[in-house]
Amino acid sequence: MTNPTAGIPTAAVPTSAIPISVTPTASIRTPFDGNLLTDNPELYEARFPDAEGLAARWAEDTLRRHRAGRRVLDLGCGTGRDAARLQAAGRQVVGADLSDAMLAHARRHHPGPAYARADLRRFDLGARAFDAIVCLDSALLYCHTNDELDGLLDSCRRALEPGGLLIAELRNGAYFLGRTELLDAPAENRFAWRGTTYRSRTTLSVDRTAQLLRRSRVWTADDGTPPVEQRSAWRLLLPLELRRFLTAHGFTVLALHDGPGPRTEPRWQEGDAPGDRTDADRLHVVARLTSTH
């Protein structure tokens, strides 16, 4: 996800992305104001394969652990893979995302859930329509300001039944206190899809004033098309700060820990119990709506 509005739960931000047409000889075009991966869902799934359905399995395990009801909103559903797997596990799922390309892909390739377009920062998918909301892969952190985060949590409070759950998986702002491992050097990645090799060079930096983790990613392809630079950012939230926001919106935090989870090392496996630390680079939070006022 490169654009603060891209790939965010259908609940995210208005976007002016210019979609790319991906063909068997897909290439990076320029000028390009969108997000290469989230505007091209098949390419996204090629870059982030998840044959084991790890994120959805972790979410389903958490839902069962806390005895959540069947009606689930997958907020920031992206390509719909997780939403469809939760549906297959017996949930009644609505997947929400801002990206029209993602939603079209989800309806075509991952049928089962209902899919809706919404804005992460403030959405209305029905009052008390859900027993649980799942928000994976740092989607919550596309709320860059306090007002945007208040809007998200306000919307979640309206959408949930009293006693409903909010389950989120996201980057841990506390990890960047005194640590620079992810900031010291660009990260290089490459993958091949339909005969074209794509390479990315990703640089992270911390904007302390805005409390954002900023990302610059340069894409190149071996078909000779010009490089494309894309930028995005995530809000950096400290564990106690996240707890305070949730409490202010009527949620009681049941679990807040750094792993194991679907994107930790080592990764979560069936039967793993939640940890009790908040020191590593991911946070996992489970909160119950205990007040609707």
From TrEMBL:
GO biological process: methylation
UniProt-recorded name of the protein: Class I SAM-dependent methyltransferase
Presence of keyword Methyltransferase: yes
The keyword ATP-binding belongs to this UniProt entry's keyword annotation: no
Molecular-function annotations in GO: methyltransferase activity
InterPro entries (UniProt xref): Methyltransf_25 (IPR041698), SAM-dependent_MTases_sf (IPR029063)
Methyltransferase domain span: 72-164
Residue segments, region Disordered: 258-277
Composition bias, Basic and acidic residues: 264-277
Organism, scientific name: Streptomyces piniterrae
Record's keyword terms, sorted: Methyltransferase, S-adenosyl-L-methionine, Transferase
